[in-house]
Design goal:
The protein is mostly beta strands. The chain is 6% helix and 40% strand. It has one domain: Jelly Rolls, CATH 2.60.120.
Length: 98
């Protein structure tokens, strides 16, 4: 099993907005090992993850939101930004998308 990026479980509850066929995707992966999974969620879906990086996305034209709840003895967010995606926080990107 991959290394924990946090010391608690995370429960996600999903709601898809827009057309009823809408859905969102969640990728669960760890940067410390070669392991990745992806799931498709629709409205009122839920998922519990005991570890990992957990980005969520949906296709253009469909909206979504999720509620993220943590549980466990130590509830501390350990956010990181991977080097491959660092450009999103650069000033040049911010100016381009004002």
């Amino acid at each position: 099993m991959p290394h924990n990026n946090h010391q608690f479980s995370v429960v996600y509850g999903f709601r898809c907005l827009g057309p009823v066929q809408g859905f969102c995707m969640q990728r669960v992966y760890a940067t410390t090992v070669r392991w990745t999974r992806a799931w498709r969620f629709t409205t009122k879906s839920s998922y519990k993850s005991p570890w990992g990086n957990l980005p969520v996305a949906n296709i253009a034209g469909y909206g979504s939101y999720y509620l993220k709840v943590m549980a466990g003895p130590t509830r501390k967010w350990l956010f990181t930004l991977e080097g491959d995606h660092q450009w999103i926080n650069e000033e040049q990107y911010a100016r381009k998308h004002q």
